[in-house]
Predict the 3D structure of the following.
Amino acid sequence: MLKNYIKIALRSLFKQKMYSFINISGLALGVACCALILLYTTNEWSFDKFHSKSDRIYRAWTLEDYGEGDIYFNTVTPFVLKPTLEQSIPEVEQIARRYVFNDLVKRSESDESFSTSIQAVDPEFFSIFDFELLRGDSEQLFSGLNEVVLTPELASQYFENEDPLQKTLLIMMGGEFQAFTVTGIIEEPPTNSSIQYELLIPMEKAKTILNPNSLLNWYSVTPETYVLLNDQADLSSVKAKFPAMMQQALGEDYNEGEYEVGLQPITDIHLNTEFPVGIASVSDPTYSYILGAIALLILIIACVNFMTLSISRSTSRAKEVGIRKTIGAERHHLMYQFWGEALLMTVFSVGLGALISEILLPFFNQLSGTQLSLQLSIDSILLYSGLALFISLIAGIYPALVLSNFKPIEVLKGKLQIKGDKSLFRKGMVVFQFTISIFLIACTLMVNKQLDFLRSKDLGFQKEQVVILQTDLKLGPQMGLSRITQESAHKKELLESQISGNSNFMDLASSIYTPAQQGWIGVDFKDADQQTRRMNINFVDADYLNMMGIEVLAGRSFSDEITSDERRAIIVNQALVDDYGWKNAIGKKLPGSNFEDHEIIGVVENFNYQSLRTAVEPLALSINPSLLLSGIANIGFFNSPSPRISLKISSDNIPQTIRELEQTWAAVSPGAPFDFQFLDSSIDSQYRQEERLQKIAISGSALAIIIACLGLFGLASLMISRRVKEIGIRKVLGASAASITLLVNKEFTILVLVSILLAVPMAWYAIGVWLDDFAYKADIGFWTFLLAGAIAISISWITISIQSIKAAQVNPVKSLKSE
Amino acid sequence: MIQARNLKKVYSTEEVETTALNNVNIEIKEGEFVAIMGPSGCGKSTLLNIMGLLDNPSDGEYHFLGHDVSNRTERERAQLRKGNIGFIFQSFNLIDELTVFENVELPLLYLGMSSDERKEKAEAALERMSMMHRRNHFPQQLSGGQQQRVAIARAVVANAKLILADEPTGNLDSDHGNEVMKVLAELNEQGTTIVMVTHSPHDADYAMRVIHLFDGHVVTENMQEGFHV
């Protein structure tokens, strides 16, 4: 029996090539999407679970709450947290801190140096986590200070084919290169690890270049602290011990509820966006949800194709059902048969889908920003078989029920009226598919529009032809903010003298931060009424505002000629003036009592130094960092401060200008890497997530409309084949080919119009939710929906017309005779 | 074998009610060869469908092999049909996707026979219809007469006691038609009961008895010359 079913299923598959093609290719695309998305989401959900002790590893966090929204929530912690926890909490088995910074690394004095991400970790790092030590002695690791552990990839970058163990590597620390001995090789971190690294040094070594105060201070947070509890530990009783621990640690500074410590499971880090981002990267689960939803919708569209096409083409299978029933088949025989056919077709589709997903994987990785790979494993086989079974159940059961219910005499006498033929079901399915497609198209158009808006909005400064050159100046024990600001100004002057007269360089200025570096430095202070005032700050040289083309609304810009500017001048933006409720800011002072002598000399317009997700926040600028730093109570760095030189260059022959700049820079700052970017591209890079969403939306809606049209194509051809006689009669009676085409297209056009009506409010809502993330948004124009609808209608017309024009041109004699 | 009393069949659509059979009384004994004749739309095929348990009468009694089957569910009728009744149609109604052998084998599959048994019986039936040489062909590769012979092989393969033929020569030229009629006559001689709907007086000559229907009524019942029940 089974053999017979398979045989007939295969033969009807090959006989009806077009329907088989539509069904299989549509489903295969759906399956490929689903498989990739499942791969992505399982990867997302698998983060950090590979550690054998993952259920006992936690990341510590601190929460300072001084009331009135004066809250500091951090997943990077004070250095002293480790010894304190070790002393106070008996359940703690081991603790490893981790701190990351970038600096230069080279093989030997004569070699070229590369900026490398350096991780300082405690020795416990190697026993808490499951990162495998490939070479070296884990017991002895980091017993000395100048040891370094590398990943194989980084080791081969510096040592090529030589054995790296016991070799020396020079690492820039505290302003000078220091020699480190390679004592271990550690495996590359898995892609689903929150903790990524390439070069590890002992935490004790890193401490030697840090400000000694910050090592003991409870209010300065730097490393992540990972805590391994013993296997008997009860989390709630551990947590209960924290307040007493903090009371003892802070002594008389302790006020109940002001300083909290807590533990976050390591497996929770990757997808939890409620916690502030520490060193470990966090992924916004929204994108997995959007991806998942799109994949599911595409799969459903493909399944719907399968159902409607199976039922529609059942006229051609009806005779077989009749014959089988007359010669003894019972309903369940036929249900098995048709479901089996659905299963067979899905097995083909799933196989093809697996192949397609393999081909699309690199493209998908680009879309989702991941490095996933497909491996043939028991899991993936189970996944694909489960998918096949699921789809065949969804897509096969309904046709099986309908087909097996035919009355034999009716079908054999050709009196068959298929139930779904005129009913709402099939129309409903077409509407459903097009609603989804139009929804996706409208969302895509809107994402495009918003991105265009973000890219073209006037930010209030010059962003084209501006090159940002990163200096190698960094904070260190002897390098405070004032010092690096001065050094940077000095380098800028040197550079200026070298390039003066070169018409490719038009202007230059130095600053600690440049636009598109989040909120620069966030600070607050208490005013005379003890009210907390917040603002962002940045330190610039006298030329910066002018060079960047930032408009001064009142007062004046900084000037080299006025020597007091460096000592006491502050410029604020309009947002600060509005926030502090001033009418005229010129000549005023910031309302904090601790600031050094200063005066506001100018107000600049609200230029968008942050991304357009946020409205412009209050900002103060000074040449001299101590002026602004003196009066503040709290400070938060969004990026570690490192001065940059901005250069406005001519638009002619940019590659040549960059080459000249590189040569000049090598002379001005010997040994420093030539690290530059264009301001406009770094501004655009703030919207990478949105760009990813745009790509996902474009591919998703394209796939959806393609699959929906495949189904529509099949449906139209089936409908026409059933109306051959009607079309023949109409032509005999004088209908033109055009009017016949119109007749057929009309029926489907109505369905697409209904879909537009349904899709518009859904898309309107979804787009509104997405746009809420932006302080600056493009209008949701009605034309977006009009265009989405027009696209859907034209694509469906092209699809149907291929069939209807053909049908309208058939000689009626032929069609009536065959009937 | 078959007793029908006051059989009535009414087809109703939303607006029209059509009476296809009206108080039809028929009795057919085992071993008979009966032809049903009448103009188009007189109810011949409706009667045949009820006799073949493909349809229920609207009213009246119908006994098949001693069972009252006038109001059985489709499932029950299918059970009784299996192995007892074979059908032959004007348009052959072979399954295009199956080969000659597979078409003939199909009723045995639904009877749950083993593959060896099916092979034996299907080959015997094909042999009987002289179609063994075409066993691996598909229906479209055969002439009309050959297709009908395959259909007959399929009807007899399960040793059906009753064969119902609906205009079996309607789609055939006279040579092939005669061939098919001879095969049916042979089957009847071997003991199979045959009920045949036909337009052709020539075909009806092969039958023992001819029943004439008109507008759903039995008009006449004639014993053919030379035949005796």
Remarks:
- The mean pLDDT of chain A is 86.
- The first helix of chain A runs from residue 2 to 15.
- The first strand of chain A starts at residue 57 and ends at 65.
